[in-house]
Write a structure and sequence with these properties.
The structure holds three protein chains of three kinds.
Chain A (H helix, E strand, L loop, with lengths): L2 H18 L1 H27 L4 H8 L3 H13 L3 E7 L2 E6 L6
Antiparallel strand pairs in A: 1-2
Chain B lengths: L3 E8 L3 H12 L4 E5 L13 E2 L4 E2 H14 L3 E5 L1 E9 L2 E8 L14 H5 L3 E4 L6 E4 L1 E2 L11 E2 L9 H5 L12 E12 L3 E3 L16 E2 L1 H8 L19 E5 L18 H15 L4 E6 L9 H10 L3 E4 L2 E6 L5 E6 L6 E5 L2 E4 L3 E3 L4 H4 L26 E3 L9 H23 L18
Parallel strand pairs in B: 1-2, 1-12, 2-5, 12-23, 14-21, 15-16, 15-21, 16-17
Antiparallel strand pairs in B: 3-4, 6-7, 7-12, 8-9, 10-11, 13-22, 18-19, 19-20
Chain C lengths: L26 E6 L11 H9 L4 E7 L5 H14 L3 E6 L2 H14 L7 E5 L1 H5 L6 H20 L7 E4 L3 E5 L3 H12 L3 E6 L21 H14 L3 E5 L1 E9 L2 E8 L9 H7 L3 E3 L8 E3 L1 E2 L11 E2 L9 E3 L2 E3 L6 E7 L1 E4 L3 E3 L15 E3 H10 L7 E2 L2 E2 L2 E8 L24 H15 L4 E6 L10 H9 L3 E4 L7 E4 L8 E7 L5 E7 L1 E6 L1 E3 L3 H7 L26 E3 L9 H19 L3 E4 L4 E3 L9 H5 L6 E8 L2 E8 L9 H5 L5 E3 L4 H12 L10
Classes of the chains: A alpha+beta, B alpha/beta, C alpha/beta.
Chain lengths: 100, 443, 689
């Protein structure tokens, strides 16, 4: 089958499905926007130095338990890692992308 | 999907369901195992270590999961739910819904490229919503089948996963499908859920972020947990003072759960011992009504915990609230002195109880007991029989029980089903009851 | 005399499952993280890298959890796609997953014995957690040893033995009866051997059962009738197992059965004429019975017996004639593929003086009270020793949860520190029965913890509180004291306890009856344990291999556990465990054959000179013998192994003067290669044989 035809059919399918699932897609778009915002804010916060969850939370003005959830997810997917402790709180730092 | 004919359908792929399926399959019967989650393993695969031996839970569960997946006599259907059951002289005709994964199970290799490309992060059910995964994901690293599943409710339909998949397994066009199984017997192994963390308002759990359920602690203690260590979910602090509140969801008429959930004393003690290892400087207190360490090796386990320094305080916790730093405060009357005290901890674990995970009354039309678990009419002579011939029950679908008892009960259910199958199809094998006594020898 | 060629050591002809066994080794090495259990101490990546450099290693990988489906699939894929023909796995102890990985390797088409397992957890990470560097080094050495051995591995076949499709059940209580019934219903033949003259065990001594309130005797009767009616079950009562030999699939058992001693037609006359009486164990010594007796009304078999152990030989006078009864032992030989141990329990017998037991007549055990009440059911008032009983004290945990130094140990020097599981619910059941039967009675329960854990059990506790049973809490290191009251007191007994529900106050409870809730102890079966070579735990109960992976199997292949011989349990639990035992037996024997691991001795007939040293050192009956053979008209002797009896211990290997014998899969050359790998300074200099 012609590749272009296949690609067009696929795009049509996705468009149609997005229409069918309009409410959940819109909700997810909003969710993604918020997640991207938090990701930027958190990464910016730890760029200067490693920080604890309460420190990050106070800086970006979000509840600590929410920030912890985000930090946990960034840690799982390789954006952040632990870097020592500050008292009873782990410190988190940005994992830099490997050059080259 | 063509209609199938088998000897037994096991509903539920937790430890009891898997063991029952394996025991039946080992005897030569053809078995189908139906599981509503995308993977088998039930609650057991979420645990860290098991009591009283403190074996690594994965080490015990994954081989059973693997054995089920590979047994020539077992066919595994995950992400499927039983819709209707109709009985006729030919057996039970079961209609099953196969929910769409939006991933082709035959071609997916579990490489997780789709998961890494997906931009949407959602709370992970496996990590009790304290961890996360993406909208398309392999549920966890030891999942069986090791196949991705897409959560359409949180999907952007951006198509990134489809592009990332090296074998083209993502398929947005999948629809729910129905198929039929004709079986001679059914084993219900639908397991349990924890009682609701929010249920007791005196424990203020709506707002208290540092009051958690025991499964969350299991995930913290497990090697593949969300944090990789033990932290309190309120703010990520490593706790130095941890309290367990026993009977937080059992033996409590105000919650409508007046029975004992049997495993909570042991799991609280087990977690305390593991915490002793993970956080050597932490103080651990268990507030209890009665310590029920009744099984083989359990009393010695309790004594070891006491020797390790776990503090046991007899007193039913009346109230939990918190201070400005969200440290939970436990209010309790110490039974043996009559003192009412308030104690502050970093983290409180509510030892929640067990309720049935599924109500089989509608679809399977078996009677339920007043405790809402499946009714077993002759508990002392036929512990796995329901009130419907041909439908059997095992594991925590019968009542709360621990893993050892679940495995043994699964064996019993397999035998009960097996003898039922033999006697149902072979008249020659039947025998009469109450025949005259055989002659005995005498001198 | 067998020809040299006929000696095949019982093996099936080795199937050429894979011709590549003869090819150069392509070794796949897998180091498991074990979910952190290994990787927290041992640097698995470093180990894998070092091993990858060894000669003949085609691939060296790590995995978080090799036993998981994903881990196993990885190994299978390498075998199929990379032509791996030897697998070395470093993970937890072989006792856990050697079988699992054999399955993995077999599924990929490789002979299961071309896989070598090295233990890096129990042998390394768990014992050297203080020294990660040392532990990593050790892991490399252990795995290198595995690789060295792997080069020398040969494909082997499991020993295939025909199995008898019948089972022996030892014990005729509820668990033994249930196990026998289920095994028979699954299509096998069963022989049930019961030591006492009557079936039913301890269940026969109960009245009503919790949590249903059903009659124990009715349920038991139904079960016994089903067992008796089943054509595939042979019942041997008043019989004991005296000898066991053989192995799984082929046990040979000698049973000795007593004669019942009296013709049932005239038994009643004999009983009437008999004068000798002994304590009746059915009523726990509360009553007496004749030495010619029936255990209880409705017992099975219903014909009376002579109690040979206690009959003093005095003649019975009947119709003017003097008859001396004599036992005639009938010896029965039978074969069994599997043996189920359902030998049950004895209630703890308090020492004389323990809580006043045996000294104060108003102190009884709960089993005794159950029998007493059953005998006096129809009376309005409960009398004990002629005295009306109004105040009853029930003491929990007698003979259980004992603390060393506080309680007197058993003859083996240990106290019963375990919980007996059933007594709390049994106690509350009794307390409720007493309150409901005798509304004027006051009941006091002295307890440490109330353990009403089972389905429907908590209801008994709630009901007891509704029934105004009074609870007093004592600590295990401050046992209650039971003393005879001073003469003239209204009550015969006083019970003193520090009650922690009233802040440790010392209370004195006057009582008409003190009931000790005695715990559960396994029956004395030293002889069976010796015969079958099964293990017991520190709590003296029979030991299962693994409480989760193999909860009803013993370490002896073919010997399965059922019921309270394994640990305290109630009727529901015993019935469940017995059914699970039946499942195991059926899975074991159902196919008509059993497979034993191939790790048995094998003789090289060329090197063997017939010295017979191996036979002298062998500890296992029937494992090895010298046979006289004939080749080309010449007679000579060679050692011949019977694989089914061989345990693979290797004593013969160490003794043989000509190095003619080896354990298959663990040969001397393989050991030498492993030792070289461990001892050599520079691993890369290892010579490959």
């Amino acid at each position: 089958m012609d590749e272009k035809v296949v690609a067009r059919a696929r795009t049509e399918l996705l468009k149609r499905l997005r229409d069918d699932h309009k409410p959940s897609v819109e909700r997810t778009q909003e969710l993604l926007k918020e997640q991207k915002r938090v990701q930027q804010a958190v990464c910016k916060s730890v760029r200067e130095r490693s920080k604890t969850v309460p420190e990050i939370a106070s800086e970006i003005e979000m509840p600590t338990h929410e920030v912890l959830w985000y930090v946990t997810s960034f840690k799982k997917y390789g954006l952040l890692r632990e870097n020592g402790m500050c008292g009873d709180y782990p410190l988190y730092e940005r994992v830099e992308e490997k050059a080259g | 999907m063509e209609n199938k004919q088998v000897d037994a359908v096991v509903v539920g792929g937790g430890i009891a369901g898997m063991q029952a399926a394996l025991d039946l399959a080992d005897q030569g019967h053809k078995v189908v195992l139906v599981e509503r989650e995308p993977t088998i393993g039930g609650k057991m695969i979420m645990l860290s270590k098991v009591f009283p031996t403190l074996d690594c839970c994965s080490c015990i569960t994954t081989p059973k999961m693997s054995a089920v997946a590979h047994h020539p006599n077992i066919e595994l259907f995950t992400y499927c739910e039983v819709q209707t059951v109709n009985e006729s002289s030919a057996g039970f005709e079961i209609n099953v819904l196969k929910k769409p994964r939006y991933v082709n199970e035959k071609t997916c290799t579990g490489c997780r490229n789709c998961e890494f490309e997906c931009p949407v992060t959602v709370p992970s059910h496996f990590d009790r919503n304290l961890g996360s995964y993406h909208a398309i994901r392999v549920p966890f690293s030891t999942a069986v089948p090791q196949t991705a599943v897409l959560d359409m409710e949180n999907c952007l339909l951006c198509g990134k996963c489809e592009k990332a998949c090296p074998v083209g397994a993502v398929d947005f066009s999948q629809q729910p499908r129905y198929f039929n199984i004709l079986t001679q017997s059914i084993i219900l192994a639908t397991g349990f859920e924890l009682t609701d963390l929010q249920a007791k308002k005196e424990y203020g759990t709506r707002k208290l972020k540092n009051v958690i359920d025991p499964m969350m602690m299991e995930r913290f203690l497990a090697p593949t947990g969300p944090y990789g260590r033990v932290l309190r979910p309120g703010d990520g602090k490593e706790p130095t003072s941890i309290a367990y509140v026993q009977c937080a969801g059992s033996r409590d008429e105000t919650l409508g759960i007046d029975y004992c959930s049997r495993v909570c004393c042991m799991y609280a003690i087990k977690q305390s011992m593991l915490l002793n290892g993970a956080l050597p400087l932490a103080d651990i207190t268990i507030y209890y009504m009665d310590i029920r360490t009744f099984g083989k090796g359990y009393e010695q386990f309790y004594q070891n915990a006491q020797a390790m320094g776990v503090e046991f305080v007899r007193g039913k916790v009346a109230k939990i609230h918190e201070d400005e730093e969200h440290n939970p405060i436990v209010r309790v009357e110490i039974t043996e002195s009559g003192e009412v005290v308030e104690r502050t901890h970093d983290l409180v674990v509510l030892s929640l109880g067990m309720i049935p995970a599924y109500d089989p009354g509608q679809v399977f039309r078996v009677a339920l007991g007043k405790d809402k678990f499946v009714h077993v009419p002759s508990l002392n002579s036929e512990p796995c029989m329901t009130d419907r011939p041909g439908i059997f029950v095992t594991g925590t679908a019968i009542s709360p029980m621990d893993i050892v008892d679940s495995i043994i009960t699964a064996g019993a259910a397999a035998v009960t089903a097996s003898t039922y199958l033999r006697e149902r199809t072979n008249d020659n094998v039947r025998y009469k009851l109450a025949v005259p006594e055989k002659e005995v020898s005498y001198a | 005399m067998p020809e040299l060629d006929e000696i095949n050591n019982g093996r099936k002809p080795a199937e050429e499952k894979n011709k590549i066994a003869g090819e150069a080794p392509r070794i796949g090495v897998y180091t498991c993280y074990c979910g952190g259990n290994i990787s927290k101490v041992v640097q698995c990546e470093k180990v894998a890298k070092a091993l990858g450099k060894l000669p003949d290693v085609t691939v060296s990988r790590t995995n978080m959890s090799l036993c998981s489906d994903a881990g196993q699939s990885m190994i299978e894929q390498d075998i199929r796609e990379l032509g791996i023909n030897r697998v070395v796995i470093g993970a937890c102890a072989p006792s856990l997953h050697e079988q699992t990985f054999r399955g993995t390797v077999m599924r990929a088409g490789l002979n299961p014995y071309l896989y070598q397992h090295m233990g890096l957890r129990e042998q390394d990470s768990w014992v050297h957690h203080e020294d990660p560097e040392g532990a990593t080094d050790k892991a490399v050495r252990l795995m290198a040893a595995g690789v060295s051995k792997a080069r020398l591995l040969q494909p082997l076949e499991n020993i295939h033995l025909e199995a008898k499709k019948n089972a022996l059940v030892i014990g005729g209580g509820v668990a033994g009866l249930r196990a026998a019934l289920e095994i028979a219903r699954l299509g096998l033949r069963v022989t049930l051997v019961e030591k006492s003259p009557f079936l039913g065990g301890r269940m026969a001594q109960l009245d009503t059962l919790f949590p249903t309130g059903e009659s124990a005797s009715l349920l038991l009767r139904i079960l016994i009738e089903r067992v008796a009616a089943h054509p595939s079950i042979t019942l041997l009562t008043y019989a004991e197992v005296t000898e066991v030999s053989g192995y799984v699939g082929n046990f040979h058992v000698t049973v000795q059965q007593h004669s019942r001693g009296v013709n049932p037609m005239v038994a009643d006359m004999y009983i009437a004429a008999c004068n000798q009486e002994v304590a009746d164990e059915y009523n726990h010594g509360l009553t007496q019975r004749k030495v010619i007796y029936k255990a209880y009304p409705g017992c099975y078999p219903s014909s009376p017996v002579v109690d040979w152990e206690n009959y003093d030989g005095s003649p019975i006078v009947l119709n003017g004639k003097q008859v001396v009864l004599e036992d005639e032992i009938n010896t029965i030989e039978l074969d069994a593929g599997a043996i189920v141990l359902a030998t049950g329990f004895d209630p703890y017998l308090p020492k004389v003086g323990e809580y006043g037991f045996g000294e104060i007549p108003e102190v009884v055990t709960l089993p005794q009270l159950i029998r007493y009440l059953a005998l006096h059911k129809d009376e309005n008032q409960l009398l004990w020793n002629g005295h009306a009983v109004r105040d009853v004290v029930l003491i929990h945990c007698v003979g259980s949860r004992q603390v060393e130094g506080i309680s007197e140990p058993q003859p083996d020097g240990r106290v019963n520190d375990y919980c007996s599981r059933v007594c709390c619910t049994a106690n509350l059941h009794m307390a409720n029965e007493l309150r409901e039967h005798y509304p004027d009675m006051n009941i006091f329960n002295l307890y440490q913890d109330i353990r009403t854990y089972g389905r429907g059990h908590e209801d008994y506790y709630r009901q007891a509180m509704k029934n105004q049973v009074r609870f007093l809490l004592y600590h295990g290191d401050e046992l209650p004291e039971v003393v005879a009251a001073p003469t003239g007191d209204l009550h015969p007994v006083l019970v003193r306890v520090n009650d922690y529900l009233t802040y440790g106050e010392e209370l004195e409870v006057p009582a008409d009856l003190v009931v000790l809730a005695v715990g559960i102890m396994p029956r004395q079966i030293d002889d069976l344990v010796q015969m079958l070579k099964v293990s017991r735990g520190v709590d003296r109960f029979l030991l299962e291999v693994h409480p989760k992976l193999r909860p009803v199997e013993t370490a002896v292949n073919g010997v399965i556990l059922a019921g309270s011989a394994q640990g305290p349990m109630n009727i529901q639990e015993a019935v469940t465990a017995a059914s699970a035992a039946a499942a195991k037996v059926s899975a074991l024997l159902g196919r008509g054959y059993v497979e034993l691991p191939a790790y048995v001795a094998a003789v090289d007939p060329v090197k063997c000179e017939g010295s017979g040293v191996c036979v002298e050192v062998c500890e296992y009956d029937g494992a090895i013998a010298l046979q006289t053979l004939n080749e080309n008209g010449k007679e000579f002797r060679r050692a011949v192994v019977t694989p089914a009896n061989c345990s693979g211990c290797g004593a013969c290997v160490s003794a043989c003067p000509t190095r003619a014998i080896d354990i298959q899969g663990w040969t001397l050359s393989q050991y030498e290669a492993m030792v070289d790998a461990i001892a050599i300074d520079d691993l890369t200099l290892l010579e490959v044989h």
